[in-house]
Request: fold
Amino acid sequence: MDFPSDLFPTFFLPGPPGLSDSPGSFLSSVWSDYMQLLKPPQTQDPSMRKLRPWEANPQREASYVTKWGRWKPDTPGPLPFLHPGADPWDPELTSRDLLFRGRPRHPPRAKATIDVVEQLNHFLWDHGDIAFGPLGMLLQENFNLGERKKSHKARAVMNAGRLLQDLGGYQPKGCPWAHLSTRQRRFSLLGGTVLGEEVESLLGGLLHEELETRWKELLLDDACTGGALAWVPGAKAHTGQLVYPTGRAHNQLNFQKIKLSPTREPQVLGDPTHISLRGPVRQVVTRTVQGEALVAVRSDHHCAVWQVGCQGRPEPLQVLDTHKGATGISLSPHLPGELAVCTRSGTVCLWSPRDGLQQIHKDPETLVFKDPSSWRWVDFAAHPRMLTIADRTGVHLRDVRGPSDCGELLFCVGAEASCQRGERVLLAQYLGTPSPLSLSPTLHLICSQSSLYLLDERLPLVPMLKWSHSLMSPPLLAQLLPPPCPGAPLPLLLGGLGGHLRMLHLSGGSSHAPQLAAPPQSLPSLIDSLHGFPVLEPHGQQLLQDRLKAPLTGLAAVVPPSHPSPSMLLFQLSAAGDVFYQRLWLQPDSSSKNADSPQNGISSTDCADDPGFSSHDQTSATPSLNTASDACALSWNAQAVACCRRWLKTLLQVPPALPPWTPPTFSQHHHLRWSREEEDKGEVREGLQAAMTEGRLLQQEDLGPLPPSDPPPAHEPFGPEDKLSERLKASWEGKGAVWWDSQQGSTQVPRKRQKRRSQLSSSFSSVRTNSDFSDIASSPHRSYETPSPLHKLPETSRSLELSQELWAWSIPRERRQTLRDYLAVLPSPDSGGCSTPLSQNPSSHSLPTSEPGRHSVLRSQNPSTQTLPSQHTPSLAGSQPRKKKPRMGF
Amino acid sequence: MDSFSEEWMTSVEEDDRVEASIGSGPDIHLPWLSQHIQSTVNCGDKGTNFAQTTSICFNFIQEALLKHQWQRASEFLKCYLQTLEDINSQRRQVALENIWKLGSTILYHHPKSNIETFSTFADRMKNIGVQNYLKISLQHALYLLHKGMVEDAYRNLNQAESWRYGEMSTSQEKLIKLIQAYRGLLDYYTWSKKKTESSQSDMDSYAINAATQDMHSYFRQASVNLHEIIKIPGVWDPFVKSYVEMLEFYGDQDGALQVLTDYAYDNNFPSNPNAHIYLYKFLKKEKAPEDKLISVLKILHQIVPSHTIMLEFHTLLRKSKKEEHHKLGLEVIFAVLDFSGCTENITAWDYLTKYLKQIIKEKHLDWVKEGWSSRKDWWPTFHFSYYLAKKNWKENKILALKKAFTSGILLGKGCRYFMYVSKQGHKVQEKSIKTMKKFVMKHNILDSEEC
Reply:
């Protein structure tokens, strides 16, 4: 093999990553993306060639598009390939679930804080038995829970029988009806601090630790590095198998036979072969070496190898138990049946089902500098006895035959590769190709959070190519494909966990440095196919959207058997277990004429070629360009839409993951004994009861028609004709317009109306004042989208209270009596409870009393009780809004 | 600083704080962190809003670039120029670099862009802020060079070289050196052109004299700059090559050798195989003694055992009179065939077969055993499997025969590769197969082990 004779000049100065003044950052390819397309300066005597190198280059560079065309998908997004699995899928944890959502104190510097308090709150509510159980066990000896004989001489034993009895009817889920007995109250006051402290210190610590792990996992989940989707080519060129995990725990390995066709969509042949495993499948690797197809699977604590026979039937070869947890597995591209496995403890083993395990390397420390991550990776190299061992800080090249300290550093996170501060290795992959003519078989791909590096193992530490991929998720998947047609550059696919895909075109045989042959391309991700699905109702839409947004956990590209225009099938596996596919065609580009004649200037034909360009010279109508270019490029064809529909139909049949809601059983016999005596429940309570048992939102119909016989006797007919009352009544019943029309019919003189209004306004100034205040106080709540009566209730009462407060100082003395009379008919809150509960200690907030006034004030403190009605609801609902309406009528 | 993006910067700022609030954790920067935070924290501050809009705009441009929508990207870039108004100077600096990176890429690919547009853009960008002048100048020059505008590129480099602004940072000093080196390379191009002209045309002595003087001045200019850059650790293949060529022309063979030796053996430099190859080729041209050549190639063998020159090295070692060289010759040829890219190299297999025969005849079976011991557990499957026997026989019969011979010597007559090829070959090339079989029956290391 030849080594590239001319490399791009670059500085080499070792040092830590991220030196802002590091000359290493002059690595030429880092500067600008177009630089990667330039050939290194030649030194050959220019006169020896017919054309000078720089003269020959422009044509050759631009020729990629004309020569090979452009990869184009035939649909705007990938299509579902297999039906969604039977198991429902819960969207994974998001940062919204973990982080504190309050308003930060310093807005310009956004800050992420894990919301332990809220999580702890949830935990205590949901798993009170776990939180308080152990403490109860400890204290059990000091309590007598009603046993007959409990004699402890030394200990103080408290009789808790009555306390338990009090608690008997109490539901620990924040039930507002629960009555707080004096005994309970005393106990909670005395024991609350102790219980709280214990739970806080022990559980809080653990919870914090757990949340921290989850947050870090959310930011960077390395479990599925390498991807869990793989393609095993079959005996014939147009058949093969997809290997992927399904099931809720991703523990079922599937081998699905597939038939490829150069033009039609791939077809599934029969049912997949299922293999149930005892752990989640994290990584699936396949290789066919010397006609022997092997599938290696990595789970958290197990690794396994299968051999796929000629008939396509997988036969298990061996299973490996890794105590510390495996982080990477790879199959040798040189020797059949040889694997390399690495674990979190830093051990790297060569594994062959025939010869067993051979430990190659063991070092719990990281290679270059200290990094807490226990992620390790292993892959092969151009020499069959060499392995690349990677961790977050670098990649080491090791000869398995030598002692454990031999070998050299292939890549290190440092100034040599002009890395940023905080940059880490996320993926290291050997890009061995069977034919050295297309690309040197000594190349390794290394991905970090921000960049992609290509390194030649013959020139370690100096990247041959660096490209900042700008993926907004960790790039954990990569695949190099054979050239689509002889001599063409090799497509390299790069997939981020968030579903973003990039395609690069690598060129450079063994005697040329690897180079990008064309500007990198992005490929559609799963979420791009959202528009291919019919619009659903919000719940279904959300379900679909979550499903399509699921992390990308596998990527497999297949080049179907030869066809005049080369194509590629791209299979994608999401964390929800969905397999999507997309076909890409290498098509001659229509705008290539433009692209290849940069110096031709503007001609009319150019503009005619591309409507986008012509419309854009004068105006910046981006949307129009957007639609124009998208429309002419791709659209959802009927077949694709039908495919999406079929998939969706299956998906929506899958039951959602919500647990069935069960109505709480509720014993009333103790505290609510009197309620039995009242037999005349009435429609209202029945409706309420029904709504409660069904666990749905209480609606107006449940409460029956509003009792018309219950108007507040507050105002007698004011003035000569009591149109106001009529109108209020009409508008409350939703017939305001009808009333108005009827009025218009009877009194058609607008002048009169104006007069009446002025009369009214003068005579009801006191009422107006009141309602004005209520308006002011409740104005923020007006923006509620769906104000059911139950939502309105507390607002109104609150606004009244507030207005009462305000009233004291802003209403003229002479009008106060009118108002007082007016308000007297309302169920008045206790005068003291009006302001004090707002500042009461929070321990009482979960147990609101059933007094209506108190309850409504507490509402502002405890949102959970906001929509829960008290027993006095009907009367309030019936009378209260009438007070609020006067202004709305006008 | 160069590849920093807006998101990157914000995440750098936020990262520390996040880690601090989490407590412990790696000092790892995640570009997607800011997205996670933005989804939970909504701030209404004007500055943050602007930064968010900016980053959205940046993403739009990148998306358009990745979809090869150059026109669309350029429209977005127009909006992105607004980021230069940012009050935060650090963000402004990042924005500048982003604009240059995105803008140059767009102009490089845009169907309606031409050299003038690119140059105007580059000139404009150079003069916004001072930190980017040199970097942009150099990239501009490389672009011009790529487009064949050597004179313009030269003018550009010249301008950049004479640029001064306050005190230069170390990185700027390095960059100036690089710029000078590129200028030196362009001087070398002119020198080289003049050299060919003077050698081809029939000029009178006066003209030749003038041309020689002219050439010499170019040489002086180039050599000063090239000499400077070569001292700094790095990969300087084109510079070293051109410098050495000029030194050779003026008869300074020692100087050239010194340059090449330094380039190859300085420990501060990366282990660049080309450095050793250049040195070897130079020595070979200078007809250096074989021992010298062997010592150079020995080091190259350690770095790149798979290089094509190793075949040359092998013949050199075979010709050598020293026995240790003979032994090394076997190791060299074995090592070439270790690599996956060389498995079907007929010359290498030919060399190995012939050399094995020779060594066995010379009764150095222990060498073979030694070389074989580290390969016996994997070469049989790597090279001599039944699958490969069928494949090689089908694709390349000569290769199959050579390999079969070797497999017979190394693995005995029972080897499946040997058996398959000899059986198949019997029908075609009876004679050569017979001699092969005969040899293998007599000499193979398996049998010799038994005796």
Q: What stands out?
A: Chain B is about 75% helix and 0% strand. The first strand of chain B starts at residue 234 and ends at 235. Strands of chain B lie at 234-235.
